[in-house]
Amino acid sequence: MIHVNGEKIDFTKFPDGTASFRFNPNRVVPFEVDSDNPAEFEIAWKYEGDHECILLWYLVKHIRSILGEGTQIYLDMPYIPNARMDRVKNPDEVFTLKWFAEFINSLKFDGVLVFDPHSNVSTALIDRVYVQDPCDYIQEYVISDLERMGFTNILFCYPDEGAMSRYFSIIKEEYVYGIKRRNWRTGKIEGLELADKEKVIGRNVLIIDDICSKGGTFVRTANALQEAGAENIFLYVSHCESTIFKGTVLDASPIRHVFTTASIFHGNSDKITLIPHK
């Protein structure tokens, strides 16, 4: 889904499947454009699939073809596609993140705003990137909501050492974290233990991480927290894939409620609160 200066672009298709759309950039520029006063656009892209890459290409090229190469265009892309594929180990693996970043860079945006990226590799590869961390979102929307509902004395929990190292220095709150037990022969996670689990007894706990697929790690973490004596357990993830409905987070886990942004989530559940992206 793509918006320009708040206006949704309606993409349609010709009978052969190729894209068709109309957009007059002059209509959304409230002043006369010249070399000293360039037009400025913000393209907001809520990723729904790789097919949108070519639509983004068409849109940016169209704007600059009409208003000139000096036109200032900023991309608001909260979720970075391909961020999981941030390294390759074998010659048959395709480094999709690298090639995606090369595509974004080729459009020469004046700035690219991303939210809580999954990997530092992605922000290293993208030119003129600006990163929003989740601290304000967690405090303003999650903690305040929980406190209004009477859940105080909140302890933060990072489900693994990767999440802990990513967040503990920017979220200045008391926390515990999970240590995964992995079968190094099969690569499968066989269990999870909590560091400093004595902190958990009688506490309301908020699990924090950047992305959720089916949520198996979060269920393991919640089970460990429950066994350690947690009173109530909640989950915040910056990016929640709709595959959460295929897991057991929402219907067979100790997690009472999930908070996430609308960066990539599609669906509805009474157990999920969508935080507005700003």
Question: Could you please describe the fold and organization of this structure?
Answer:
- Strand 7, helix 3 (120-125) and strand 8 form a beta-alpha-beta unit.
- The radius of gyration is 21 Å and the shape is elongated.
- The strands form 3 sheets. It has a 7-stranded mixed sheet with strand order 11-10-9-12-13-14-15.
- The protein is α/β, with parallel strands linked by helices and 278 residues long.
- It has helices at 51-67, 96-106, 120-125, 135-148, 161-167, 216-227, and strands spanning 2-4, 7-8, 12-13, 19-20, 40-45, 72-76, 111-115, 129-132, 154-158, 175-182, 189-195, 204-212, 232-240, 255-261, 272-275.
What's this model, at a glance?
This protein has helices at residues 51-67, 96-106, 120-125, 135-148, 161-167, 216-227, and strands at 2-4, 7-8, 12-13, 19-20, 40-45, 72-76, 111-115, 129-132, 154-158, 175-182, 189-195, 204-212, 232-240, 255-261, 272-275. The chain is an alpha/beta fold and 278 residues long. The strands form three sheets. Strands 11-10-9-12-13-14-15 form a seven-stranded mixed β-sheet.
